[in-house]
Amino acid sequence: MIHETPQPHVTGGAQTLRRGLAVLRLLTRIGPGGLRMNEICRRVGYSKATVVRLTRVLLEEGFLLHDRTSGHYRLGPEAFAVGLAAEPSYELQRLAAPMLKRIAVETGDTVFFTVLHGYESICLSRDEGDFPIRNQLLKPGDRVPIGVGAGGCALLAALADEEVQAALTHSREVRALRYSRCDDATVWRLVRETRARGWCVLPGLLLPDAWAVGVVVYDTQARPVASISVAAIRSRLGVARSTAIGHRLMKASCELTEMARDREAATRPPARATMRAGATQAGA
Hints:
By secondary structure, this protein is α+β, with helices and mostly antiparallel strands. It is 53% helix and 18% strand. Strand 7 and strand 8 form a beta hairpin.
């Protein structure tokens, strides 16, 4: 437990920052379920007035989210953005942003970009098309076990069988509690179908009428790091349309990897040119 003990030679601003970081650190360790206000106060050892002030600012800045139904506070999109800023997959999201918006306009449906983080996938962005019925299951900052959702299944299918099994073992309890239709047998079937087809078609496992199509995105080293998915109501994702969207997403995925490769090449130091120049000078 972190106690509210004044530390020597610490200014008020630094102490406030340290306390705010303590709240963020606590909620990071707790995971996606979050905690109620009283539990946060108990665990960090600060007064309720102090924690209320801290959480109010963190909420305003997007580092926390507050579920009014459960009363739980949990990490918001800004906290995830900070944590992922150094990851190549986060740079991929920035590169992908215009492409994702175009796909949302083309399809009229909701487009998600998620990144792989351990045994979870974290939603970094959601772009909505103009179709009046929209998918609200996932929002930026949300994280779910890989294998849950079309993008998560696409990521899982890109892993070796032993990694798939390890991921399913790790998330079995959470899936049984929150995503009961995503049992091991069902996810394995989706993995096999995704590998054969090239994209995942998720048949309403989270909500009966919420279907989705997802593909994996590889980094420049051919490692699966992210996914792009399109979610819509069931009537909009028949075989023909889901196939067309699958091909569109696969094309987008390949383009995104090429964009990342071009970006790397543009920022890579001209080591060979420098070596040649040095060799010329030495010969002279």
